[in-house]
Amino acid sequence: MTLLFACQPQKPSEKPDAWKKIKLDFKRLDAEGLTGPPKGKVAVNYEFCIPAEPKRWRQVQKIDPTAQKNEGKGRAGCKESQWLVIGSTNQKNYQRVLFQLASLPYVARITQVVWE
């Protein structure tokens, strides 16, 4: 029995430092990822840069179904060799999604989108 337990794959340990990459004010968001007055709640959009590689884009899409690939630098300051990705907090387990995105080694930071 002990031998079977020892053969089980171990979950990789989570890196709590990933939370430091997320620059959103979670205190302003409710359990559904919405903010604002009771009759006017809205989702918060966030953005980050990823290497302009289809493999990386597929990884992000698996984690975040709201992710959209965009042109430009955004406030995240994406470089020519990167894609700007925008996602939304209006999804199930949005905090876990953000943590998993921030845990990706190629995501430097996640910031709130400010629509103008």
Which SSEs are present, and which pair or pack?
Elements: H1 2-6, E1 22-23, E2 34-35, E3 42-43, E4 45-51, H2 54-63, E5 68-70, E6 82-88, H3 94-103, E7 110-112
Parallel strand pairs: 1-7
Antiparallel strand pairs: 2-3, 4-6, 4-7, 5-6
Walk me through what this model shows.
Helix content is 22%, strand content 22%. It has a five-stranded mixed beta sheet. A two-stranded antiparallel sheet has the order 2-3. The chain has a domain of 73 residues: Alpha-Beta Plaits (2-Layer Sandwich). With 116 residues, the chain is an alpha+beta fold.
The SSE string, one letter per element, is HEEEEHEEHE
Distance between the amino and carboxyl termini:
61 Å
Strand content: 15-25%
- Order of strands, main sheet, comes to 1-7-4-6-5
Largest sheet: 5 strands, mixed
Structural class: alpha+beta
Q: Identify the overall geometry.
A: globular
Spans of at least 5 consecutive residues with low confidence: none
Task: Tally the beta strands.
Answer: 7
Q: At the first level of CATH, what is the class of the domain at 44-116?
A: Alpha Beta
Name the descriptors:
5-stranded mixed β-sheet; 22% strand; 7 strands; 116 residues; 22% helix; 3 helices; two-stranded antiparallel sheet; Alpha-Beta Plaits; alpha+beta
Q: What's a quick, concise take on this entry?
A:
The chain has 116 residues and is α+β, with helices and mostly antiparallel strands.
